[in-house]
Structure formats: structure tokens, C-alpha cells
Amino acid sequence: MYVKLCGLRTEADVEVAVGAGADAVGFVLTESPRRVDVDTARRLVREVPPDVLAVGVFRGVGAAEVRRLAEESGIGAVQLHGDYPREAFDEVAAAGVRLLRAVALTPGTDVRVGAYGEDMLLLDSPVAGSGERWDLTALDAARPEGRWLLAGGLGVHNVAEAVTRARPWGVDVSSGIEASRGVKDHGLMREFVVAARSADA
Ligand SMILES: O=C(O)c1ccccc1N[C@@H]1O[C@H](COP(=O)(O)O)[C@@H](O)[C@H]1O
């Protein structure tokens, strides 16, 4: 079970995420209570070991700007939320980063992993980063295969049940590991990784 912990803002957050065994850590470089500026992101990315993927999260930012911020921060992957066309993915990929395509599962959503050149697909709630869950029965009509992550309102107390229901390749969380909006709870971060992997066993 691949686990991404998102919305990290401090060195201590990174240290705890890596120590807990996260496969990927996310830094929000877009409008959000969890936003970090590019200098902070660059400083935090330096603390991430090479075997952990450092992901920059973007929404509503043009592809050229995403690419610039990716290059300046040194992140290893870009997570794009919203209506980015295929060309935007290609432009961002030119920065030498891996791609995550984040979408809400609505009728007509292309759930083929790699359809836009992405390495991973993220199925999230309609309002990303809100901590709101979405109806997993939608997966019965359109289920991705391969490297896809389940996100949206996951937490220590529901991740195991969600994994059992949805059978994703990985999970992603932000709100559910916070003490307050934008402030990570290090205990919950550790517990989340354990809970997510316990369901996979
Ligand atoms: O966290 C945010 O504020 C955010 C802003 C813009 C795009 C995405 C954002 N968050 C991403 O949403 C998912 C799930 O979040 P949650 O667990 O439901 O809070 C995660 O990938 C965040 O990075």
C-alpha cells in the first residue's frame, strides 16, 4: 500500500512522515491554508530522502508557472488538480518530474492511469483538500487499474474500511492528519500509515 502524506509545512512534518514510512510527501504550492512558498518548499524538499517522492500540489496555476515552481523547488513530482489539458501535462513533464493527475470521479471521467501521461491517478473528492469523503459506490461503474490513489476525507478511523471497499493501489491524506487546518498532528501521521497498511495485509 503506497502512502502519500500531504500538506506538510515544516521540517518536523517531513521528519515524522519519513520516519513513519510514507512513500510520498506533498507540499501545496497553490492557494490553500497549507500553502508553502517556493523557498520553503525547496528547503523542505532537501530533507526528503531519495527513496521518498516529494510532490508539489497545484490547482489553477498555468502550466508554465507550475513548471517554473517545480524546477525552482526541486520537487520530484507534480500533482495537478483541475481541468488541465493533455498539453499542460506534457509541458510540466518537460521539467523532468513525474506526474499525478487528480480528478473527482464523475460520469465521463477518464480513469485510465497514464491517459494524460501521468505516473499515478488520484481520485479525490470534488473539493480537494476539504477533508470531505465521496461516494465510493461510483467506483462500481468506473474503476481504475494500476497505480491509483484514493483520497478525500481519509483518516485514521476510516482508511482501513475505505481501502477494503475501494482496493486502491495507494492512499493520500491531508485534513485527516491535522490538529487544526494547516497544522499537522504527528501522532495522527504515524497512526495513519499503520492503519492504511494494516488494511492491505
Ligand atoms: O490541501 C489543499 O488545500 C489542496 C489545495 C488544492 C489542491 C489540492 C489540495 N489538497 C489535496 O487534496 C487531497 C485530499 O485531501 P484531504 O485528505 O481530503 O484533505 C490531497 O491530495 C491533498 O494534497
Task: Walk me through this protein's architecture.
By secondary structure, the chain is of the alpha/beta class. It has a single domain, classed as TIM Barrel (Alpha-Beta Barrel). Helices cover 30% and strands 22% of the residues. The protein has six helices and ten strands, in the order βαβαβαβαβββαβββα. Bound molecules: ligand LGQLAAA5. The site of the ligand O=C(O)c1ccccc1N[C@@H]1O[C@H](COP(=O)(O)O)[C@@H](O)[C@H]1O has 25 residues, from strand 2, strand 3 and strand 8.
What characteristics describe this protein?
alpha/beta; single chain; 10 strands; 8-stranded parallel barrel; N-(5'-phosphoribosyl)anthranilate isomerase; binds ligand LGQLAAA5
Compact overview of the structure:
GO terms for molecular function: phosphoribosylanthranilate isomerase activity. Belongs to the TrpF family. This protein is α/β, with parallel strands linked by helices and 201 residues long.
SSE topology:
Layout: E1 2-5, H1 11-20, E2 24-28, H2 38-45, E3 53-59, H3 63-73, E4 77-81, H4 86-93, E5 98-104, E6 120-124, E7 148-150, H5 159-166, E8 170-173, E9 178-180, E10 183-184, H6 186-200
Parallel strand pairs: 1-2, 1-8, 2-3, 3-4, 4-5, 5-6, 6-7, 7-8
Antiparallel strand pairs: 9-10
The structure holds the ligand O=C(O)c1ccccc1N[C@@H]1O[C@H](COP(=O)(O)O)[C@@H](O)[C@H]1O.
CATH architecture type? Alpha-Beta Barrel
How much helical structure, as a percent, in the residues? 25-40%
In CATH, what is the homologous superfamily? Aldolase class I
Give the overall silhouette: globular
Q: Estimate the strand proportion.
A: 15-25%
Q: How do the strands line up in the largest sheet?
A: 1-2-3-4-5-6-7-8
